[in-house]
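ok here's Transposase, seq below lol
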Amino acid sequence: MRAEIAGDPGAWRQQALLRRGHWNAYVVRDIVRDHVIEHLGTDDGVLVINEVGFLKKGQASCGVGRKYTGSAGKITNCQIGVFATYVSARDNSLC
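and the structure came out like this:
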C-alpha cells in the first residue's frame, strides 16, 4: 500500500530501499527526535510507550507466534508492536 501511495508501480522500489539501503539507525533516531522537539517540544512533553498485539491467523508474517496479547486477553497467534508517542500541549507524534 505504501508503494501505491508513493506513486510507485509496485512494491519492489520500496523493498529495495529497505533491503539494500545503508543507513545508520542512530542517525535516523536523532533526526526524528530533533524534528519532534523542534515542532512539538514543550516543558510538559512526555514520551508514552505502548505495547499493542496484532492478531494473526497464520505464520507467514514476520514475528508471528503464540504469545499473550491484551488485544485478545489470552495467548494466541499474534505480532507484538511497541510504540513510542511524544505528547505535549501542542500535539502528539508517533515516533
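fwiw The CA atoms of residues 59 and 65 lie 7 Å apart. kinda neat tbh
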